[in-house]
Amino acid sequence: MKNDLERDLGLYATVTISMGAMIGSGIFVLPALGFKKAGPAVIVAYVLAGLVVLPAALSKAEMATAMPESGGTYIYIDRAMGPLAGTVAGIGAWFSLVFKSSFALVGLGAYLLLLVPLSGGLVKAVALGLAALIVVLNIVGTEQSGTAQSIIVTAVVVALAAYVLNAGVAVDTARFQGFADKGTGGVVTAAAFVFVSYAGVTKIASVAEEIEDPDRNLPLGILISMGVMMLLYTLVVAAVVGLNDAKTLTSTGPGAGDSPSLTPMADGAGQLLGGVGVAVISVVAILALTSMANAGVLASSRFPLAMSRDSLAPGGLARVSERFQTPRNAILVTGGLLLALIAFVPVVELAKLASAFQILVFSIVNIALIVFRTSGVESYQPSFRSPGYPFVQIVGVVGGFALLTQMGTLPILGAAGIIVGGVAWYLLYGRSRTDREGALGVILARRRDEEPVTSD
């Protein structure tokens, strides 16, 4: 059976898939949580989070042009640091993305309730239905999924631009007073929690094998989507802060009293246009969160595909459907996990745990690029090279670990749990099936050869 995927995603689809993985909970749910930690300076927290993500985005853009294969993060870390590190990264990135997609579909329930009075069970049923639809869409074809993504993301960006423009006439500048009252610590903590808002920027690398002209479209797609989203997040979060009083953002959540709002965009729209504004933004939020989940399934399903090709996962996951030219089995396994999480697990908490692993992986991606450059392996021939190497990558590593320390004990333990699980899978399944070594092995072998021989 043919196991190659078709290249049918152009630059626009590449950009919108990347943006679709970012336009979701980060903009429709998290601003109020960030505001609670940083006050109006949550705007700065979003910029800071974007700057910490940028080095990893540049690193992935370079490595993607050298290895335009499905698997993204898994492929780069595996080829740089060996199959053990690759297994941990592949399983962890897969879980993290599926958690994020589950969180998006469950999170849209808060906006759905603003449109129609549904019971909790019906909201979950809608989320499960959308998840099943997304799985089917991904199986039918990447081109169809990419087209749907392009349409949805374009509509959402236009709506967000209109939101910002309309907010300009209604923003109350008094709400920015005491901008930095919660100090640098509050901003850094908020940046750690909203970091996942940008985590989708490099997920397009997971479907690199299906992108037309990857040498051009991959780095351009990553950098364009990153630039657009940093600007969009800054403007939208500023509008949310300026439209809502602090009490609305920090104490109108489902727990009431001390819970931040889960619908800060709709809260602001209510200040602008009343009930009509709430309804419009709720529809946009549902589209955006569905888009985010679709991008997550599209990208995350390529991790088991790539690991299967390397004998680190069962061989059936590498099969590509002859009819649809998509990795059906990998999508079905990913979709099964997605449905199970929505149905049985408190996904909001798991998404928080998974975010810590995302920060860790972004730091390791920067280390992987340094390993490739240092090793000088002949097979590493990127057409795009990250500017500012290695200083940009070092800043990314230090910044990532600095944010990780602000996540709290439980998320860090969650990341550690994913690492332990990945190591266990490699020892029990992968180690006996592979004897590869990464570029790091080349560096270590070279240094062993250079060590002087001492005589007795």
Automatic annotation (TrEMBL):
This is Amino acid transporter. The chain crosses the membrane at residues 12-35, 41-59, 80-99, 111-139, 151-171, 183-201, 222-243, 272-299, 329-347, 353-372, 384-404, 410-429. Pfam families: AA_permease_2. GO terms for cellular component: plasma membrane. It is a multi-pass membrane protein. One of its GO terms (molecular function) is transmembrane transporter activity. InterPro entries: AA/rel_permease1 (IPR002293), APC_superfamily (IPR050367). It is found in: Cell membrane. Keywords: Cell membrane, Membrane, Transmembrane, Transmembrane helix. It comes from Haloglomus irregulare.
